[in-house]
Amino acid sequence: MSGPALCVVGGTPLRGQVQVQRAKNAILAMIAASIVVEDGETVLHEVPEIEDVERAFELLRAVGARVDYDRLTKTARIDATGVNQSRLPAEIASKFRGSVLFLAPLQIRLGRVELPGSGGCDIGMRKIDFHHRGFARLGATVDYDEDGRTVIELKNRRFQGTLLYLDLPSHTGTENLMLAAALAEGQTVLENASVEPEVIDFGNFLNAMGADIRGLGTNTLFIDGVDRLRGIDYTPMPDRLVTGTIMIAAAITGGDVTLRDVLPSHLRIVCAKLEQMGVEISADERSIRVRRPGSQRLNPINIQTHFYPGFPTDLQPCVAALSTLSDGTSYIRERIFENRYDYVNPLLQMGADILISQNDVCIIKGVDRLRPARIAADNIRSGATVLLAALATEGESIIENVYQIDRGYENIEDLLSQLGADVARIEPDLAPSSVW
């Protein structure tokens, strides 16, 4: 594979304190929503320098917005005054799932949007037809051409408030329809809405812009449409998925790590499951400390993923890596994405003992140690998973296709190096191969 790789020399317990980045899944929605501001700037602070954010900026520029991103201060200034293009370029939109979040704002600004097909992680059927049905109920027409392109057009000048119901509490579906309803004529009631923290943060962002959204944090939203939203300054919430990943990194290496400026209340079930495995967790309002003596074997675990506040599907692969070193057999049931077990083959390559049963349960028998390997990151979370396994493995591993990790984790090698890990970004042709 082309592009940089990560060289990981594992076996060192992580120790120290770090501050994690802001939440990708909230920021992407905020970047897209900036399109509806016709006069003035939207300013987002502490925006991480990750690939999915860069793709979102590219889409903004492609539709006519101006984006200034200061890498030193991590401040993004977005001026959408000149937005004039309703077609999302396939070469950008196909690279990340967040492109679907541009559907509502472009309809609001230009009355139509053309989407060639969204990309992102190949982890199963992530249908967006409920987005389309929602737009249709709000007053749009949805057409699909023979090339797979979706064209959505408003029948009238504005969306019309109505009753909406999501078959699944999707966070992107909730965000798209919440924004559409925020600028609709009349009231919209959105049932079975997502209650994920990132959705609440996005709703707070819209309310700060002048929207009238009530019920955030519950499954029913009441949204009274307003005529316009204004540009604001906003700092998104910390990224709970990056927080969870570093917590598990501390546990899998037998380390002692404190994460600062995080929200432990968003990770209650993750903390509870790690404690069941024998990891020591202590938290206050804005920090979490994770400790595990390296000589202490982990307990096996039983996990089933579910929509928030259940165990997050995005951290299920990381806990699977941790379970490979437990003293017993763990059982993991993925209930959201059917292809979420794509990390199994790389972990098998590293010496794990994993079986997927006929009823789709991931059965992991703990082993004494993993072995180094040359492996590739298939998507954001499976990439993080093999990175965690490499950190726990004595010897040198190479992780290729690091672009996938870079989509969601900002300078992951620098973050881990702050905690004493031996992780370096290299060109793949420079990677040693003597251990494989």
Give a written overview of the molecule:
This protein has 436 residues and is α+β, with helices and mostly antiparallel strands. It folds into two domains: 5-21 and 238-430, UDP-n-acetylglucosamine1-carboxyvinyl-transferase, Chain (Alpha-beta prism), CATH 3.65.10; 24-234, UDP-n-acetylglucosamine1-carboxyvinyl-transferase, Chain. Helix content is 29%, strand content 23%. The chain is built from 14 helices and 23 strands. It has helices spanning 24-33, 51-62, 90-93, 103-110, 129-137, 171-182, 197-208, 240-252, 268-276, 316-323, 344-349, 380-391, 403-406, 412-417, and strands at 5-10, 15-19, 41-44, 66-70, 75-79, 112-115, 140-144, 150-154, 163-165, 187-191, 212-214, 220-224, 233-234, 256-260, 280-283, 287-291, 302-304, 329-333, 353-356, 361-365, 374-376, 395-400, 422-426. Strands 21-22-1-23 form a four-stranded mixed beta sheet. It has a four-stranded mixed beta sheet with strand order 2-14-16-15, covered by helices on one side. A four-stranded mixed beta sheet has the order 4-5-3-13, covered by helices on one side.
